[in-house]
Amino acid sequence: MKNKKYYEYLLKIQAIAKIGLLHSSDPYALINYKEINDLSKKMLEEFMEIDFNRPNYFARDVYPTPNISVRALVFNNKGHLLFVQEADSKKYSLPGGWVDLYQSPKEAIIEEVLDEAGIGVEIERLIGVLDHTNFTSGTPEFVLAFLCIPTNVKQKHGHETISASYFPLDKLPPLSHKMHPSELQRLIEATIKKEVIYE
Questions:
Q1: What confidence tier does 59 reach under pLDDT thresholds 50, 70, 90?
Q2: What would the pLDDT profile of 88-147 be if each residue is shown by its tens digit?
Q3: Which residues of 152-167 are buried (b: 16+ CB within 10 A; e: fewer)?
Q4: Which structural domain, as residue segments, surrounds residue 28?
């Protein structure tokens, strides 16, 4: 168990470094992320007694798998649906995001809603699993959508969003590329009918 936790810890550090290298534009931060990535890679090589430069080791083409993301449908007592306004596009999406390495979908959705909307939630049920590949740049992706209930936990939302607001279902805001209108409509209908969508 100790070795497993150490291995997962190293993978988590490397995942954070890779995310930083992908999204950061600060030169100093990029140098630090590169160093963390190299150090964690070296430690993993020594821990597992393998060479990461060996062909096909941990390569995506060995066993390609889709990405997993989560989205939350949160309604207030008026039946209005929660949306977050994205800082980059200025458009709206359901709160949510990618499921990080060794993070459960439950942990991810609670964390994402709190970070993006500043609202604590509890999961009531799964609404559906959607194949989001056709609406992205081509990267295979499955979206796990959850019906969530707001709690009393509140905090300031994170830097990725401008605001968080509830909208009536007949006056929804302009959506960002992260959620296609047909997807959203299917999720709303499944919520109302108490159904679960599987793809």
A1: very low
A2: 899 999 999 999 877 899 999 999 999 999 999 999 999 999 988 755 445 678 999 999
A3: eeeeebeeebeebeee
A4: 2-48
Our count of domains for the chain comes to 2
Q: Is the pTM of this model over 0.85?
A: no
Q: What CATH code is carried by the domain that includes residue 182?
A: 3.90.79.10
